[in-house]
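Hey, quick one: can you model this chain's 3D structure?
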Amino acid sequence: MKTTIRIHCPDQSGIVHAVTGFIHSHGGNIIYLDQHVDKQANVFFMRVESEFKSGRISITEFKAEFEQTVIDPYQMSWSLHADDTVPKMALFVSKYNHCLYDILSRHNSGELAVAIPFIISNHSDLKSIAEQFSIPFHHIPVTKETKVQAELQQLELLKSGQIDFIVLARYMQIVSSRLIDAYPNKIINIHHSFLPAFAGAKPYHAAFKRGVKIIGATCHYVTEALDAGPIIAQDVTTVSHTHTVKDFIAKGRDLEKIVLSRGIQLHVQRKTMVYNNKTVIFS
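Sure thing. Here's the predicted structure for all 283 residues.
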């Protein structure tokens, strides 16, 4: 059995020894360890991958004893994940298909170790793509008058599907606190990096007019502050006066799908930790 433990706590001496010593004393072999200290906040972060021989220990027993022996004395916040558990990811989409195609292709090739129980959309345009990949598609229209009822319907589907996290693959609706509170730091979004300088319906057109030299994309967790949640991944590419608006859009969409998939991978591999609206991203 392989496990991943993530912890953060006030920085103090003896943390690494306490964690690794406990794992070793319970027959575990540490195969990866990474740590970081935020000196300004005086917070210690660590991610540990361990392997245990089959049948040597139960997760329930390990958690109970680990909490009593290590977690409580060091005032740790922590999570433990068994790597044989495949997380369930729900996809929210609207009309743009580039991110959806990229995610489903990566999943179909075995690159993304997730289950995708269904796709939710406020439009029916991408239903054929869901059918192409044999994934259930739920069309839930959203208007100003029906937004509350639509989100309640979405939550019902998410709960019944035992969804672990959500990916907004160019879902062109603002997610309310109703969903955010149900999935804190478990809703992943992608947007162009022009915000807030080039906000609005046509950011690439505005960037083109301004003569920018780089364009980018940002993958982040969703919070109530629009497009201002903890950042998971970012990337940029260069542009010049020789590129047209269509070139800007094409390059931007390439970045969006690459950065979004990178962010999903980091989340699935439990390499992200959120603290004070920032992320620690382990290698």
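One thing worth noting: The chain is about 35% helix and 30% strand.
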